[in-house]
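Question:
Write out your own:
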Amino acid sequence: MCPDKGDKNGSPGDDLSPDLPPDSGSAKGKARKLPQVLTCMAAALGTLSSGAVNGWSAGTLTSLDADPDITMGTAETAWVASIISVGSLAGSVVAGRVMDKLGRRTTLLAMAPVLLLGWLTMALAPNIAGVLTGRAICGVATAFLFSTGPVYCSEIPEARMRGRLGSVPSLFITFGVVLSYLAGACFSWRVSCYVCCVPVVLMFVAMLFAPETPYWLLLKGRREDAEKVLRRLRGPEYNFDVEIEEMEKKMTSVGKKMEYRELWRPRTRRPFLISLFMMTLQQVSGGNVLMMYTGTIFMSAGVENHSLATVYTGIVQIVFTVLCVLLVDRLGRRPFIVLSTSVMGLATIMLGVYYFMNDVVGLPWPSWVPLVTVLVAVSGYCLGCRTLPWLLSAELFNTTIRSTANSASLFYNRLLNLAVIQVFPFFAEAAGSHTVFFVHGSLSLICAGLSLLLVPETKGKSLEQIQEYFESQAAKKSAHKAEKSSPNGEAAGAGQGNKAFQDV
């Protein structure tokens, strides 16, 4: 496997497609698709309810404000939206360890009652403290579900389906957000909590019939069970010997013992930094501000019937997230990320212009302008910013470190989310909404340019091939450094290169 021809050491933005051979699955008997699809959908039901947790504040803040039992101000509004990130920070610290210890499937099952408890605590809350407590509990559960769901859905399917099925959890997050919008528009905030907890109950029932991932079973030395799972997922005519041998070979090369220092070793450092960049891109783009303050933004912008406008936003989310999921394996990850951040940036800046003209210049624009700009911004966000960071953070790492790296990325994501969501109402009050959206739009456009350089293209590649690419690039870079520093010339450099490859 060679680096891109235009870069001696292979830049992070390299297209992996020409560097890697076709996935070996093409030489095997054709695998059945339906079992893989249904299994991933069962796991994704958990992220559906978690998506409802994220979107709940957008459709219910106005209802909470109108409730005489609930005291709401700027601080309370900010905490209702952001406290789930506090819970997620706490959960993400241990989510990777728990996932590796108990298994992906067991972790999903264990979190269902926790998320249900959070929703019921909110529904029965006598005051704002009860609402915040329930939101925090939901945040803890979502940390496990957001980290485990993508890992599960990246380890279950074969390579040619991983892009689509690995994006299913993010698609279901969108469904959950829309569910919370509809529940908030049609019911009181208390009833909406009961509506939004239904998916997690369905997930618990569905996962009782779903298998553990073959990767985790091999990680625990249970090859026979892994073979049974592959036979069940791929079909009896599928020859999975090559696939399982590739998994075992890669586990042997990277080891089965997880160490946190692995995150900073050459073979893992670049994937980890790429994952952190993707999480940064997702948060600074301003998409989650639009998701969690939708109703509030529409009201402040003068949009008539803000509840109906919020539902429109949910419909747009579904359409463009589905479009991303369907096309990501055909067109690739990087084009969607660049397009997504570009559209998001331009539309968010336009929203800032609307607020500037209305609030600063004093020249009111029609109320349909903010509605259209928000819908365009949300469509851009759902084309890649929402979905692909989770997919890439699940597929860039080797099996031993995947769950821990995913949890570390989630921790960083939730930390940024807490800062962005908590600061928004105060920032908007102090500097004006136009300033907030100018900042988010500009950062989004900067991320679009950086994505061309930093985001690798992984479409159609097995997890083992992706790992092998980063390992070979780390080895080549180490050998190149050793060759330049060696006084004995090329021969010494070659010897150092071999040693570097062994070290990697």
User: Anything to note?
Assistant: Residues 227 and 241 are 9 Å apart (CA to CA). The chain has 22 helices and no strands. The chain has a mean pLDDT of 83.
